[in-house]
Amino acid sequence: MLYQSKIAGLGSYVPENVVSNEDLSKVMDTNDEWIQERTGIQERRHIKKGDGNSTAVMGMKAAKIALERAKIDKDDIDLIVFATLSPDYYFPGCGVQVQEMLGIDTCPALDVRNQCSGFIYGLSVADQFIKTGMYKNVLLIGSENHSGGLDMTTRGRSVSVIFGDGAGAAVLTRSDDKGQGILSTHLHSEGKHALELSLKGPSTMHWVPELIEENPQEDIPYYPYMNGQFVFKNAVQRFSEVIMEGLKENQLEVGDIDMLIPHQANLRISQFIQKKFKLTDDQVYNNIQKYGNTTAASIPIALTEAWEQGKIKEGDHVVLAAFGSGFTWGSAIIKW
């Protein structure tokens, strides 16, 4: 017997520290016009030293809100799925940290490393566990602390102006209503382009001391690298394909989309997809202007905000889509 899974509660958290484009112009050669023209971003949130936040802590804060809204006790959570590219430690993963922070005695905790597609991949994992009957309640978190690893100089501006910190969470639970909940998820990857959006070191292949010793005159590649134009070109193609794949699977048309929430990578990508699909502003939700790209956290933060603002109603067809490093991409079709 296959069960149905649905989102029972949503929550999000972003640090209080607002970093505007003007703030960035004081530490690197950039300006508000340059950033907005290329990304649509006006400001983002960064963890501030001493504020007590980390990837796991922000995930815990978002999770508490989602649990309260779902009216599900923490001890009824059967599985934690935590998506991030910026864990507090190489190991252990953030999933077990959140389990301890929430005071859950024991439960399995799974960490997902699919970067910008992390929440969609995590949603698929949670959905399958519930559908097969193995678990009833799954806590899914996407959280990122980018600011701790960005090159905040002119050299790194093309990447550093884009990213922000934050977390979003969803509680998925078993439902008897076959016509409601997660209808389908669709996942893809294309590893041949893995290094076009990557962080090569430090890693188990490239520890910082080794790099300094072997290449004393060269820049240490422990900051993110992105081939921006190539990523943009692939993103718009894959976004379109995976959205259409999900609609076709469920015998839906573009006109059936009540709300599209794309991963907040770049406002220009979202606008391209919106124009291509001829969707109105009321059918697409973007908040990259306020938060920048929060990678695995971007979809749950945007989904939470759209729901809080009453833009998502019962019976709506909600489409989630993401594309990012790997390359990986995916979509989810939800009947709210």
TrEMBL record:
The gene is fabH. Pfam families: ACP_syn_III (PF08545), ACP_syn_III_C (PF08541). Its EC number is 2.3.1.180. SUPFAM superfamilies: Thiolase-like. Residues 110-191 form the Beta-ketoacyl-[acyl-carrier-protein] synthase III N-terminal domain. The active site is at C116, H263, N293. This is Beta-ketoacyl-[acyl-carrier-protein] synthase III. NCBIfam families: fabH (TIGR00747), PRK09352.1 (NF006829). It comes from Mesonia profundi. The keyword Cytoplasm applies.
